[in-house]
Specification:
The chain is α/β, with parallel strands linked by helices. About 35% of the residues lie in helices and about 20% in strands. A hairpin with a 2-residue loop joins strand 4 and strand 5. Bound molecules: zinc ion.
């Protein structure tokens, strides 16, 4: 039974990504895939892209990858400034072939991938099944946005995996939302009578008040949420040193928000 490690929302936090990759290696996953937002916000975009290119079987295009490659849309000033700073880091690469290779990698990122996991069709997008790059599915939507959730679940055959909100957990078509600590053993077992959208959380900028890096292990019959400690100081220091990256981007890492 193959095991897939799923990472998302790395946001140029290569320190967190390296810690997660070491954890994945220690549990012995068969492959790794990435749901996008490799870059944006954080201090090490080149290292992050190189690691994903080297270690992941495929990766999706997130709104921040899009912003660096094309133009930011609807970004707040801090995120926009980080996107332009990130682009400058790619531009400053002195090795012409390496520079082209990274742009080609970003340009090949896909908007959606459909696979099979056990007997189940599995849809992978960064944001949501109806607006794959940009739409957020918030935990509160399970309570407050019945029509939105209905339309989103209409586009899911059985299972979908997403990132984008940086808040891990499972949406069911009830609709309901379960954070990982409300699932027994941080594990959601797939269920024939239920559709599920699984948010894998964020490697590089968690926003669920838990500062540890988040990722999941996907098995044929279940998904397992994992958290990994990393050297937050190291990433925050690099953010504080880069004058076009707002200090808030470092501060928030300590609090997981
Ligand atoms: Zn993100």
């Amino acid at each position: 039974m193959p095991t897939t490690a799923i990472v998302s929302d790395i946001h140029s936090n290569a320190v967190a990504l390296r810690a997660v990759l070491a954890d994945i290696d220690s549990v012995g996953a068969d492959r790794i895939v990435c749901l996008g937002d490799i870059i944006g916000y954080g201090p090490e975009p080149l290292e992050s892209v190189d690691l994903v290119a080297e270690r992941c079987e495929w990766s999706l295009l997130g709104n921040h990858d899009f912003a660096v490659l094309y133009e930011p849309t609807n970004f707040n000033p801090g995120a926009e400034s980080a996107a332009y700073w990130t682009r400058d880091q790619f531009e400053a690469e002195p090795d012409e072939a390496k520079r082209r290779e990274r742009y080609e990698f970003l340009g090949r990122l896909r908007v959606r991938v459909v696979e099979k996991i056990g007997p189940w069709p599995l849809l992978a997008v960064h944001g949501s099944p109806r607006k794959p790059i940009n739409e957020y599915i918030f935990p509160d939507d399970a309570i407050n946005a019945y029509e939105k959730m209905r339309q989103i679940f209409d586009r899911v055959d059985r299972l979908a995996i997403v990132g984008h909100t940086h808040v891990p957990g499972v949406f069911t078509d009830e609709p309901d939302f379960y954070p990982p600590d409300e699932l027994g053993a941080f594990t959601y077992a797939f269920n024939e009578d239920e559709k599920a959208i699984i948010n894998v959380g964020s490697v590089g900028q968690p926003r669920d008040q838990d500062p540890r890096a988040s990722y999941v292990l996907l098995h044929d019959d279940r998904v397992e949420f994992r958290r990994v400690e990393y050297d937050i100081d190291a990433t925050a220091k690099l953010i504080y040193q880069a004058d076009r990256l707002s200090d808030w981007l470092g501060d928030r890492l300590f609090e997981g928000r």
